[in-house]
Amino acid sequence: MSARFAGAPSAHAGIAPSGAVQARISTVGMNVERAPPEPTAKPAAVREFGYATLNNPGQAIMKLVMAIIKPFKLDEVRDALTPLGVQGLTVTEVKGFGRQKGQTEIYRGAEYEVNFLPKVKIEIVVSDDMADEVMEAIAAAANSGKVGDGKIFALDIERVMRIRTGELDIAAV
């Protein structure tokens, strides 16, 4: 370790090995046989806690689907998402440019270059298994076949909490 990082807190501080790993560590060099843990119906990244399915830190079970589209396509996209069971979304008016690099407009006989075009950003948090279907629905509804139709991004979401009820993760979405 270099002197520059001496005394810096470890990124792994507070992380303990799981039960199976701990059992293996404590029995190394001993002739102790242990049965493997029983398989569970839920993936290792998910655990039950009261009314909500919770996520272990660092494991995403939800996706933030973020789309940048043309403003006039918003109603079509919303109508395409409703049958999929999407119950909420956030819409923000934004400006930007991509490959189209803006456009030239004529106003009162003078030519102006518009570098940032108006767009709409849609943000939707869905379960991991719905993300592809939501992305396909947005792409189909927002596609005009012209430059500037937009982009869709999917990002991992580790935790969500509904403020009013305290519901967590999928239950909060």
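That was protein one. Protein two is written in the same sequence-then-structure order:
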Amino acid sequence: MICLSVTKQLIQKNSSESKNKNMTRKYLPTLSELIDRLSIAQLKEVFIPKHKEEYAQEIADICHDINIILSEDSAIDAETIRAIVVLSQMNLHIWHNEANYRKGIEDGNNLELTHGLNGIRNTAKNKIQEIVGGRKDYKIDCLAAEFEDWEISWR
């Protein structure tokens, strides 16, 4: 009887471990994707105050995961910080441009600019990934000639 009980426990344990292996994520967000999401969540916390608590929790969760990644391998340098700043700036400009579009404001609103800024945003994310390693996005659109002032002087 004891053997049967131990056998059942082992079967349950192995079944549970097998389920956990199947539940392990295989496509985790990269550091740059977490930083990008943090930047956007921070904008939402400021610009959508009625959901401030929800965004504060999302920010805390993202910061938790970023801290785990940085504790494993912190290769952060000035270029990484600059890429983070560029990423945050592009997110803010995209936010304002899209908000104006939704409000029907045409002055200064240009969806082609938003498209180009999104390419800069993805380039910034790739710069972060070059430093820390991991997946990169290889579809990077260029800015139209009329937006050349937005071009970033990457090294």
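The CA atoms of residues 79 and 154 lie 9 Å apart. Keep this in mind for the problem set.
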